Amino acid sequence: MRITRVEQEAPDDVSGRVASEFDNGEIRNLSSSKIVAEMKAGWNLGNSLDAEGPSETHWGNPVTTRALINEIRNRGFNTIRVPVTWRFQQGPGPDYKVNEAWLNRVEEVVNYVRANEMYVIVNVHHDDTWIVPTNDNADSVKDRLSKLWTQIANKFKNYSDYVIFETLNEPRHENTPQEWTGGTAEGRDVVNQYHKVCLDAIRATGGNNSTRQIMISTYAASTLPQAINDLVIPNNDSNTIISLHSYFPFPFTLGGTDTTWGSDSDKQQLDAEMDKIKTKFIDNGHPVVLGEWSSGNQNNLSDRIAHATYYAEAAASRGMASVWWDNGNSGVSNDGLAIFNRQNLTWPFGEIADIVVRAYE
């Protein structure tokens, strides 16, 4: 299905223009749960502004345009997550000043999204090389995180509550045995400390940031029991949303070792995964955004459609917003996660997009 909301010939140039041209700056005093209910189906601008290099094209995706974002809206998505890597654009301590041109570029992309009246999530993404969750690194990391988020928060201070911050992406200790298994007790504790430093820095900037919604992730954004059980909401802040990544089941979605999905057992296991999240967080008043999920293209479109249908409906029926991870690669591989072609603004897997959107209608 397609929703014609924005004309494709809308100009790209939104740089240097005040936020009020695209965003009214209103904080509506809605609860976190109400915000999540409005976010609905989302799409990730993955491997662009979060590329691990000096520019958003470093990993081969094109420069993000307003026409590109218009297409995502016209397909029916209501939220765009904008992952951002900051370390290539951040100066040395003690100030850790972010390149102004980079901040302006991030704002420009946010303005593309807000011009479409969509929710937008801005985060700290592939900065794991320095955000090391150990006691030995904690003091220096917290200092840098606080200064980074102070700059980001001030940049978007006057934007409405349609702009959401996500403190950290998949905070974890890279290249350790526990990286993807829920972490160690020390690692989980330090990740909680990092979230608090980020949230405190954002709140300290005042204005709309005093109550802006902030997404907080578990260790590695994992849904494993030890990760979800040890997450601490900083300051018991009521304007927070739980951020989780559930590529479930992994062998089918990312692992590349299983190309089929749809049996009764598959559905029961996915229901159990969703129920676990709901019981832990939503039933206790903490709304959830599944900030990343998708499946790789392994020449198995019918199975991907079956999985996307069941997954999106399972998330929607339990009150979770969900944001498809699109990395720009739609080729045949377990990493072929794109449903949208950013080069020519077409939808090689539009059926999947429509299914995800339809689940929230």
Describe this structure as you would to a colleague.
This is Glycoside hydrolase family 5 protein. GO terms for molecular function: hydrolase activity. Pfam families: Cellulase. Residues 55-330 form the Glycoside hydrolase family domain. With 361 residues, this protein is of the alpha/beta class. It has a single domain, classed as Glycosidases (TIM Barrel, Alpha-Beta Barrel), CATH 3.20.20.80. 36% of the residues lie in helices and 10% in strands. It is built from ten helices and eight strands. The protein has an eight-stranded parallel β-barrel. It starts with 31 loop residues before the first helix and ends with a helix.
Gross morphology is: globular
Write down the domain tally: 1
Radius of gyration: 19 Å
In round numbers, the mean pLDDT is 95
Question: Would you spell out the secondary-structure blueprint of this structure?
Answer:
Elements (H helix, E strand, L loop, with lengths): L31 H8 L1 E4 L21 H10 L3 E4 L17 H15 L4 E5 L11 H21 L7 E4 L18 H20 L9 E4 L7 H6 L9 E6 L4 H6 L8 H17 L7 E6 L7 H17 L3 E4 L25 H9 L3
Parallel strand pairs: 1-2, 1-8, 2-3, 3-4, 4-5, 5-6, 6-7, 7-8
Task: Name a few traits of the molecule.
single chain, 361 residues, TIM Barrel, globular, disordered N terminus
